[in-house]
Inverse folding.
C-alpha cells in the first residue's frame, strides 16, 4: 500500500473531503490523526478508522503545535500533512461591491484558507528537513487557479493559498519536501450548503459534482505520482491553458458567464 505506516494529519477531517481523505489514507495503512473544530464528529471519524482525534482551531498556531505534538506522540513523525480545512463565506450574487464584505469575514477566511497552511508548514518543516522528506497536501479548490464568480473572499484567499504552496514547493524541493495542491471544482460536501442556494447549481458545479470519495481518491493518486497540481476535474487544466494564453479574453469570458448565470 502506498501510504502504509505513514503518519498523517488531516485538518477539517470531520466531514466532506477531509473525512474522505482520512478514510482513504487509513484504508491504505496510514496512521491518521483527524483534526477539526467539531470534536464529536472528528472523534466519530477517528473511531471508525482506528485513528486519533484532536479538536483543533487551525487559525491558532499554538493549537496547531498541540495537534502535531499529539499526533507524533501517538503515530510518530508526520510524513504527510493534509491541510484541508477551509471556509467559503457564501456567494454574493448582488455584484454590488466585490470588496464589500465585512473586514471580519475577510480576516477569518484569510486565517483559515491561507494562514492555516502557513502555520502547519512553519511547525513541520524543521523536522521534515532534518529527516530529508515530508509531504504537504493543501486542499485549495479550482477557485485558486480560476477564481470564483460571486465570492471575492474565496477566490482571493484561494489564490493566495496557491501562491504559498508554490513558494513552499520551490523553497524546499532540494530538501526532499514535496507539496501538492488539490483543486477540484464542485464536490458534494457540506461546504456547498455553506455557499448558499447557489452551491449546487452555480459555476463551480458546471462540470458536474463529484463525491468526496472520488476527490480523495484523486488526491491519493496525485500524491503517489508526485504531482503538484491535482485536478479531480480535468477540465480545470484546459481552462488554465486558456487563461494564460489570453488573459484579457479569459476575463471577458468570465464576465459574460457571470452575466449569463445571474442576468447582471
Amino acid at each position: 500500500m502506498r501510504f502504509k505506516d505513514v503518519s498523517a494529519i488531516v485538518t477539517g477531517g470531520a466531514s466532506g473531503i477531509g473525512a474522505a481523505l482520512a478514510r482513504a489514507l487509513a484504508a491504505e495503512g496510514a496512521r491518521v490523526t483527524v483534526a477539526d473544530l467539531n470534536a464529536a464528529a472528528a472523534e466519530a471519524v477517528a473511531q471508525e478508522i482506528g485513528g486519533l482525534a484532536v479538536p483543533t482551531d487551525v487559525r491558532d498556531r499554538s493549537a496547531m503545535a498541540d495537534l502535531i505534538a499529539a499526533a507524533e506522540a501517538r503515530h510518530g513523525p508526520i510524513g504527510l500533512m493534509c491541510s484541508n480545512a477551509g471556509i467559503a463565506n457564501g456567494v454574493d450574487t448582488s455584484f454590488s461591491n466585490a470588496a464589500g464584505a465585512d473586514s471580519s469575514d475577510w480576516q477569518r477566511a484569510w486565517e483559515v484558507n491561507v494562514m492555516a497552511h502557513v502555520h502547519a508548514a512553519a511547525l513541520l518543516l524543521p523536522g521534515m528537513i532534518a529527516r530529508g522528506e515530508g509531504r504537504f497536501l493543501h486542499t485549495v479548490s479550482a477557485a485558486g487557479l480560476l477564481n470564483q464568480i460571486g465570492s471575492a473572499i474565496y477566490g482571493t484567499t484561494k489564490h493566495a493559498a496557491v501562491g504559498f504552496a508554490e513558494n513552499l514547493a520551490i523553497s524546499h524541493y532540494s530538501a526532499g519536501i514535496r507539496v501538492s495542491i488539490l483543486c477540484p471544482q464542485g464536490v458534494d460536501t457540506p461546504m456547498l450548503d455553506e455557499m448558499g442556494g447557489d452551491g449546487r447549481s452555480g459555476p463551480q458545479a458546471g462540470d458536474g459534482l463529484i463525491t468526496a470519495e472520488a476527490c480523495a481518491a484523486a488526491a491519493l493518486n496525485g500524491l503517489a505520482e508526485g504531482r503538484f497540481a491535482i485536478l479531480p476535474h480535468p477540465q480545470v487544466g484546459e481552462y488554465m491553458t486558456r487563461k494564460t494564453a489570453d488573459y484579457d479574453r479569459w476575463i471577458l469570458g468570465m464576465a459574460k458567464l457571470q452575466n449569463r448565470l445571474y442576468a447582471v
Summary: The longest strand covers residues 31-36. The first helix runs from residue 16 to 27. DSSP finds ten helices and seven strands in the chain. The CA atoms of residues 62 and 147 lie 31 Å apart.
